[in-house]
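#structure-requests
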Amino acid sequence: MELLSLYSWPGNVRELRNVIERAVILSKGNWIESSHLPPYIRDKDPASSTRVVLTKGMTMADAERELIIRTLEQSGNNKAEAARRLSVDVKTIRNKMKAYRIE
């Protein structure tokens, strides 16, 4: 319960609903445990997974690639959620992932 209350829920009720539905499916029992929650919610230090470090000499493409990777990590590799958080279309995320060779 504490992990759920500490998370900022940028996706509001829809995101909460999706996380709970996923956890219920994964739990296969009567209890939802932290292991049933996505990694971006279980992360004890959210700043570490959301911080994008730009270094001197980094290209715009490198910075964009890093931002996409971090956003995908934070959204549990959910491309639709990452696209929503970045305010772009899902097709754009897929194209960028292909161009930057992001798995």
